[in-house]
Each structure stands twice: as structure tokens, then as C-alpha cells.
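Cross-posted from the bioinformatics board.
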Amino acid sequence: MPKGDYVGEFELYVLIAIAHGRDEAYGVTIRQEIERRTGRLVVIGAVHATLSRLEEKGLVRHRVSDPQPVPGGKRRKLFRLTAAGERAVRHSAGMLARMLDGLSPDLRGSR
Amino acid sequence: MNAPPRLPRAAAALLALAAPRDTRDDVLADLEEEYQQVIRARGYGAAVRWCWTQVLLSLVPLVRSRGGGRTLATFASDLRYAGRLARRAPLVTIAIVAAIGGGIAAATAIASVMEGVFFRPLPFPRPDQLVQISTIVERFGRAPELNYLDAGDLRTQASSIAGLAQYDVSAGAARVDADAPAVSITVVSAGRDLAAVLDLVPASGRGFAAPDFEQGAAAVALLTDRFWRERFGSDPGVLGRSIGLGPGRTRIVGVLPAAADRFPAGGADIWVPLAFPADSFLNQRGSIALAAIARLRPGASLASAQAEADTIAARLAQAYPETNRSRRYGIDGLQASMTGPVRPMAFLLAIAVAMLLGIACANIANLLLARGQARAAELALRGALGASRGRLVRLLWTETFALFAVAGIVGVALSPAIAHVIVARYPAALPLAADVGLDARVLALAAACTLLAALAAGLPLVRRLSGWSGSASFGAPARATADRGERRMARLLVAAQVALSVTLVFGGVVFARTLLNLGAVPPGFDPAQLVAVRASIPSDVRTGPTRMLDMQDALRDAAARIPGVTQAAHAMFIPFAPGTWGDGFTRSGSDDRVGPDGPFAHFYMVSPEYFQVMRQPILRGRGLGADDSERAPRVVVVGETLASRVFPGRDAVGQRIGWNDGTWEIVGVAADVRHGSLWDAPDADVYVARRQVPRGNTWLLLRTGRPAGAIAADVQRQARALDANIVVSDARSMTDRLSASAAPERFRAVVTSGLAALALALSLIGLYGLVAYAVVRRTREIGIRLALGESPAAVRAAVVLDALRAIVGGLVPGVAAAWWSGRLLDASGIVRTDMPLALAAVALIFLAAGALAAAGPAWRASRVDPIAALRVE
């Protein structure tokens, strides 16, 4: 397995949130997506710090959007997964699934 | 539409500081975007909280992401090292925490008091609409009151005024239980709309209604929250009970909300309806006796209200030229006019404390410098082992900031106690809009002060770093000759302390001298062994003026029989107690007019014994006698000032004045008396026999060596025998009253002298340290000098001269600053002393103290053993 495919828990969440964003994910949506799905407090600084790290590892990349269609609208950095990023998500999800396989449903935590 | 609220600036700045450059804009943009979403979803307050949570919790991940993981670890290790260092030299640590902590405590305390007084809005709805209306009379200046009829015109004619209410604050006495002794209280006589203008709704019971203000209505009162808590233990069953306020019983109909305790300044105990008979002097255009507040209509500004008031004043001047010709109205924000009187003192305190903090910083900077010198070898070693200069700078800053942070926390923890002492000891009621305490703004200020202090105190140390981290210092911890630059820096710091201290000590001297000068002003009567007691004679007793006058005389005669009382008199007003009767009069046979343009005096209705009891000399003619009764020709005694002002170059005795619908002959001239304050020059005074102008207000003046409290009990007993409803209150000796009138001066003198003593002590300790250290560092040089035949006396002189040079270096800018602040104080009118003399005294104090501080080290220097000194290395 190439170096960099292994990701930490929060990195994984960020990757998944980007995948949910379908090429339109940026800081705010990523933060809100993780907060909404996990129910825990997510701070903007942690999201951006993680995005920088993931980009360094080559798991995500960004493009800069057109300015927002409002007066003084800003350009956003929109993130998407690279092939390596997709592989990392698949890999981590697969590992987790294999690890959980055979556990009783209440331990698996599925609803 | 309004622009959307901006991000809290401090939070945004903090985030920008922490974020790596390439993501800074994105993080801020995201924060801004979501901040607006949260405002829309959950409101402004929630958004601010959300924003701060986001920013504070983002700091660590962001700093780490810029490769700051190591920074954080280094920081933690430096912090641990600072802790070890602090424990190793506990005295230095304690000195820093005490000096800086004390300074921060004082600064924070002053800040929280000022916050409560000046920066918190009054606790009434829409407080910025509340204004105070005062009257400005040409030649007489501004009175914080408004004529009752003028008030009616302003109320109906000024469209920018939504409501206007008048009130009067007076000292009174209340008997909570019929048998209990009376307690002194503050009473607000509230005009019809006072509660409505302030927008106060009673916390329980009802407010005043229209019938309560009618003549002959049953007496009713509202309790303030404070009085209800303190005297009635917050008893909810208090409504319907009655208390004794002067004559008869007054029914309690309601309790005011806690906010009412903030009005007027210092609060009151009881509100009663403001009611007076139609023929009262209050109901005439001439009198200016009731305070007035108003609420502006939404959208009206102070300026528009003032413009309207000016127009109305001009109209009234046309309609009633006799009284209103030179009358205008001043409209000021209520809070501004309540806090105006305390402003100079508050800023004086703030400046003094800031200077003390500055002195402490300079002192500690020197201490840090000395400690740094002692660590020169360690720092050099670190440098030799590869620590960069930046790394060492960071180490020193971390140590300094850690120490100061501890000092700041200690200071903030101590500050509430100091703030409460200030509030309790302040010589007048502080117009606090809220309780004094720590809030976010005060804490931010304390943090800023601490940070600034750390920067100021640490800068000299860090600047000197390059001198030590070089290899030159390594292995040579006790070089024999002092390093030039370092000596210059230490000397500069001592000079800075001296300069700041000179200004503070100058302030202390000036205020102390002012207090002494004030104490030396003769009041014009003999205050020793003189007690004044107020007697409230109920109106049912005083039905008919003769009956009341008989009662006053009977009370005086009964009081004169009390054992230990040698003489007794009574008067309507007495010196150094609130209340005067100011009025215009005319000189008979002149074209004088009664009113603002004509002669004006204060009128004092006194019993015949008054001048003897007060020991106020009659300079010409005679005093007032028992014969000057209701039916006798009307006569007055005038004060010296009036005699020379109104009848210049003539004898006033025998002249006649027109006043109170009659002609009065001047039968005597009395020595001047200061009535209100020792500050003010005596004013024009007229003394009238009480029998000729009967009034109810009664003060008993008793010559006695016994304490006021004991006398009051005896007077009360005698009064009871005459009439069960007479209330005796406010018994104090005249010396007490005089001393209370100088309370602001005493407070200023005590506070500034205390700060000055601290400043002097700190700067002398600093100087002593400088000289003692220099002697130790120059031991070798001194040894050589002595060995070469220099006399010990010359060595001593050199050391003392060195110290004096440091002192003079600070004296020059210090004296300049003191001279300038002296001019400011002079202009403010709160000091009275000879400034150049005070300045010279301060310079002498510092030179003498400097020589004293240098004496010990100088002595040691002259005793240096040349052999031992040369063996040091």
C-alpha cells in the first residue's frame, strides 16, 4: 500500500464529507456535514488544517470557484477527492467493514 | 437595510494570527459565512458565542498545521523551565508578583469602578433618552433645578420631550416602628411622572396615583428596594403597613424595583408624592428649587431638545421679564450629568495608578535585567550549544510573560476587594449604574495592562541579550568592570522611575498641602464644642405661625436646661448643612430691581441667641434681640461681604433694604461666615429674626462639651415631653460637619499620598539596587583606587554622586511633568497651594532620599579591602 493511503479518523470524516459534497464541497459544507452526521462539535480551524494535510498527501485537490453572485462575493476553494483519496476512503471503509463483520448488531452501532 | 453585523473583531484577528498564510482568507471567509447563517438562525448573541467557540478551539489545530507542533512543545518546555527558575529564586518571583500584581489590582479596581459609573448604561429602559434639565441664570451660573411653572411650559410646549418630571431629594428621619428611634433616611419627593419618565413599574403594590398628590390626601410612600431589604428584611407583607415620616403615619403602598436604587446618585430610601399648597413659593416663577428629568421622544436628540428649550426660554423671558429675563435651560444626558462631578477624581485616580504601574514596570525591568546578567553564563552556554538568538529571545519572553500572567491573575483576583474599598470610602455617593464587578471589558483591560507591562518590563532584558549570548560572557560570570550599555540601561530605568515618582509625589504633596491649607481656613464661627441637631416639628403642632414659634422657643429653652449644655439657639438653616434661602432684594431709594440683575443674598432666619452661640462677632451696630418680635419694626443684620458689596464706602448700619414685601432696617454688621464650604469666599448674607419671618425648618445649636449622640438622646427626651411627634435627627458636632465638608479633599490627599509613598519606596528600592549592584560589580576597580591611595571619603562621595546623577536624570523630566500637571490641577480648581514651593520640596525629598539610598552601598564601597578585591578573579 503506498504511503499516504492510511488516514486518521478525522481525516476520513473530511474525505467522506468531500465525497458527499459532489465536487462542490468547501470549508463550510464540510464542517456542517461532519457536525450534522456525527453530532459532535467540529471547528473550522480543524477542518482547514486537515484539508491542507490531505492536499499535501495528495488525497484531495481543489479548484477556485467563480466569485459568488452577490456584491463583494468571494471565490471559494472547492474540494474533490483524487483517485488516491477515493482509494483511501474505500480502503478505510473496507477495513472497518471487515473488522465489524460478525459483531452483534448492537456493537456495530447501526440503527 | 442595515449592513449585516461584522464578525467580532478580536476573534477574527486571533484567528488570522493563528492560521497559516495560505488558508487564512479561506478560514476567515468560512467563519464569516457561517456566522451570518447562525445570526439568522439563532440570533446575534448565539452567533457571537458560536464564533468565539470556533475561534478558540481552532487555535491549536491551526498552529499545529503550520508546523507549529514543535512550537507548542517548545513553548511548554520553556514554560516548565520558567517555573523551575521562578522556584529557584523565590524572592525575585515574589517581588515581581507583588509589584506588578499590586499595580494590576489597583488598575483593574479603578477600571471596574469607572465601568460601573461611566460606561454601563443606567438600568432604565432606553436610558439614552433620559435627560436632566438645569437652569442657567446669567451672572449666577447653572443650578441643577428648574422652576415648577417653567417645567409645566417645557412639558407642554417642547415636542421633543415625551415626559418631564420634577423631584426633590432631602434628608429626613423615619420611625419604622412607633417606639423605635428615628433613623436618618434619604427621601425623594417625586413629582407626578417621575416613575413614568424613568419607566419604572413598582415591584409590588402600586405607584402613586393622581389623588395622592392632592392637598390633604392620606400620606403614602413607596419603599426603595434597598430600604425594603435593609429595614424590612424583604418582608412581602410590608404593603399597607405604616411608618413615621415626621408628623403622623405614612402608609406604604408599594415597593420600587431594584433599578430605582440607581436614582438619584447614591439612591434613596423612600419616595413620597411631591405636593405643596397652591400659595407655596414653589408655585411662583421666581423660585428655582426642584430638580427635573425628562424623557426625549424617540428620534429626538439632545441638540434638538436644547434648541426647543432655548426657543421656549426666549418666549418665557418675553412673557415674564421680571423673573425669566436672563434664564435659559441646559439639557444634558442623565448619566452624563449624574457622573459629571466624579469625573475629575476618577481620571485623577486612573492616571495615578497607571503611573504607579509604570514605576513598577521600570523597577521590575531592572530586576529582570539583573537576573539576566546573573544568567549570562547560562545564556552564553545555550548559544554555544547552538540555540539561535531567536530561540533565546523566545525563552526570555516566555519566562517574562509567564511571570506577568501569574501577577495579572493575582491582581485581578485582588481587584474586587480594592474596588469595594474605593466605593465604600468615596466621600460622596458614587453614581453607579450597576454593581461594581469584573466583566468582559474590565478583564480585557486587565489582560491588556498585564501584556503591556510584560512587554515594557521584558524589552530591556531582551535587548541586552546579544551582549550575553556572545562567547565573551561565557565562563566570565563576574567581570570586574561593569558593561557600559548595561549600566546605561539600568540607569535609564531608574531615571524613568524617578521621573514618574516625582510627578506622583508632587501630586501627593499638593493634595496634602491643600487639605492642610483648607483646615487652616477660619469658618467665621467657633465650631469647637458646638452640636447641631435637627428637630422636625409636625405640622399639626405648628398650626399657626405663633404656635410653631412658641414650640421652637420652648424646645430651645428645654435643650438649654440639659446638663452640660451652656447655651442654645435655633435657626432655619445652619452652616455646613444643606439648605439656604437665596433671594433678591433692593436698596431702598435706589433703582434696584428684584431679580437676576439686582442685589442677591442668602437669608438666614435665626433666634436672638444665634450670634452668641455661634460666637460670630458683631462688628458694628447690634445683633438681633428678643425685642425683634412679630410686631416690632423689621430689622436685619448683614454680613461684612454684603455690607461692603452693596453699600461700598458707606456704613451699612442704618440703611434700609426692600425684601419679602417690606422694608427692613440694617441694625448691625456681623463677621463673615463660610456657609457651604471652606473653599468658597463668604457670600452676601442677611440674618433675620425668626419671629419676623416664621418658618418650620428647625435646627438647634447647642454649646456643650458632651458628644452629639448623647445630646441627641437628651434632646429627644425633652422634645417628647413637649410633643410626642417631634422627631430629632441628624445630630452632629460642628467640627464633624466641617470635617465632612472637606471629605473630598481628604480622600484625594490620602489616596494620592498613599500612591506617592508607594512610588517613592519603589523608586528608592530601584535606586538602591542600582547603586548596590554597581558597587559589587566595581569592587575590583574600587580596590585598585584605594590601593593607589584614594581616600575612602572620595570613594563614598563618588558612589553617592553616582546615585544623585541617576536621580537628577529622572528629576529633570519629572519636574517638567509635575509642573505641567500642576498647571492642570490649578486650572481644575481642586487644589490650593503654592506650586513652585511644592515642586522644590519634592526635588529636595528625592535628592535627600537618593543620598540616603546610596549611603549603605557607599559605606560598603569605602570599606573594600584592596587585597581581597584584587583576589576576586
